[in-house]
Amino acid sequence: MKNILKISFLFVLMTFVISCATMKENNTVSGKVDSIEAGKDGYTAKITTDAKEVYFATISIVNVGGPQNYKQLKIGDNVSVKGEIWKTEDEKHIKVTEIVSVK
């Protein structure tokens, strides 16, 4: 009986750990590039959405899956990017994993 409880507990614990690990969502942000700041491995683009929300998009070759997926955005481009969003006290950031479109 104790072994069944231990196995059940282990199963529930592993299910919880796996579900937490896969909770990172890829969110989409679309808007106009207002500024670009060069970084060590890529750059950060300030994107303003139609709803006047500002996101700081970190774009690097590694995060977008290699040089074939990497694009250098320009100020004034209308873009759509996907990635992981996080917020600080007064800023919204997105680690870009895919550049969906550039116009």
UniProtKB/TrEMBL annotation:
Keywords: Signal. Residues 1-21 form the signal peptide. It comes from the Bacteria. This is DNA-binding protein.
